[in-house]
UniProtKB/TrEMBL annotation:
GO biological process terms on file: isoprenoid biosynthetic process
Family: Belongs to the FPP/GGPP synthase family.
Annotated GO MF terms: metal ion binding; prenyltransferase activity
InterPro entries: Isoprenoid_synthase_dom_sf, Polyprenyl_synt, Polyprenyl_synt_CS
Keyword Secreted: no
Lineage, uppermost ranks: Bacteria, Bacillati, Actinomycetota, Actinomycetes, Kitasatosporales
Organism in which the protein naturally occurs: Streptomyces aidingensis
Keyword Aminoacyl-tRNA synthetase tagged: no
Protein's name according to its UniProt entry: Geranylgeranyl diphosphate synthase, type I
Keywords, alphabetical: Magnesium, Metal-binding, Transferase
Membrane-spanning ranges: none
Length: 353
């Protein structure tokens, strides 16, 4: 299969995930009390800021695609994974609503964020409501009660890890140094945990045993780390036209992302110069730091690359891709489903947004 064929297969997989999940997701969001239902609809891109119908960008849809594919890994119909797909999307978007507010991000998917349009209070309340709705969704399906309970436990554990990761990420911003191991642990929590849940929750709802679900969860965990490594690269060197974020977005927020941490861990002159700059940056008031011009951020990005942080992170994405694929070894899943899991891993490490 050529790279073009692989991309086409993955895009079809993502579109199928959207098509199967969106109607159920809209139904779930419609259960929220006003005005939270319309605020959530704005966040998902279904309406604009004035309440008129919109056809916004609903995101990459990797998580619902994984949940549905994992149901098929268990030999169940794709539809068996829909409640899990909806649940992980609700948890993911709960985290986005809160993250945007905590990070002060004014744009997501090329639109004003919820807190910017509807205020911080609504961003918090709607995020909380989506989180509660996620557990309700996974426990209100047609799977046997024991399967729904197992799926809910995995979702709750992943949600707790996600919140732990966000707390770690915020703490790291005020620290001068963070180790590579600490950064990987944080990203495994913040991103890996929910992708791990996505890759296993559909299988659990589809009747898979714990061995199969655990193997799929391992696949998703490594895929999440690969996904985040690519995100970290885009957070420094991504094209704003593709990412929908500012240039040097992670540098502006003093994020201790993988390229930064890996660069600081290197023993070379560029790492030393970068460390001196970032140490001085940490002592500046936030408002002064935000007034930096493009050349100052470009200097930091160049030092990260010169120190080796960019290459190390790209290599780590490939290592995690390989670990994800190897986690499928020994699992009794249909060959066509295994191929799609592999194609999705390949797509993740080559994406540009």
């Amino acid at each position: 299969m050529t790279a073009t064929d692989t991309t086409a297969e993955v895009l079809a997989l993502l579109e199928r995930g959207r098509a199967l999940t969106t109607p159920a997701l809209r139904t779930a969001v419609g259960k929220l009390a006003a005005p939270m239902n319309t605020v959530a609809a704005y966040h998902f891109g279904w309406i604009d800021a004035t309440g008129r119908p919109a056809d916004g960008d609903g995101g990459k849809a990797v998580r619902p695609a994984l949940a549905i594919l994992s149901a098929e890994a268990a030999g169940a119909p794709a539809e068996a994974g829909v409640p899990g797909a909806v649940a992980v999307e609700l948890v993911h978007n709960f985290s986005l609503l809160h993250d945007d507010l905590m990070d002060g991000d004014e744009q997501r998917r090329h639109r004003d964020t919820v807190w910017k349009v509807h205020g911080p209070a609504q961003a918090i309340l709607v995020g909380d409501a989506l989180f509660a709705l996620a557990l309700d969704t996974v426990l209100d399906g047609s799977a046997p009660g024991s399967a729904m309970a197992r799926a809910a436990r995995r979702l709750a554990n992943a949600s707790r890890a996600l919140i732990d990761g966000q707390a770690q990420d915020i703490t790291f911003e005020s620290r001068e140094r963070v180790t590579v191991a600490e950064c990987l642990e944080m990203e495994g929590n913040k991103t890996g945990a929910l992708l791990a849940c996505s890759a296993s929750i559909g299988a659990v709802l589809g009747g898979a045993d714990d061995r199969t679900a655990d193997g799929l969860e391992s696949y998703g965990h490594h895929l999440g780390l690969a996904f985040q490594a690519v995100d970290d690269l885009l957070g420094v060197w991504g094209d704003p036209a593709s990412t929908g974020k500012q240039t040097w977005s992670d540098l502006r927020r003093r994020k201790k992302s993988l390229p930064v941490v890996a660069a600081l861990a290197a023993e070379n002159p560029a790492a030393e110069r970068l460390a001196a700059l970032l140490t001085a940056d940490a002592k500046k008031p936030a408002e002064e730091f935000q007034d930096f011009d493009e050349a100052e951020f470009a200097t930091r990005a160049a030092l990260i690359e010169e120190a080796g942080g960019r290459r190390w992170t790209a290599d780590e994405a490939r290592r995690r891709r390989d670990a994800a694929v190897h986690a499928l070894d020994g699992l009794d899943i249909p060959p066509a489903v295994r191929r799609r899991f592999t194609a999705l891993a390949d797509f993740i490490i080559t994406r540009r947004h």
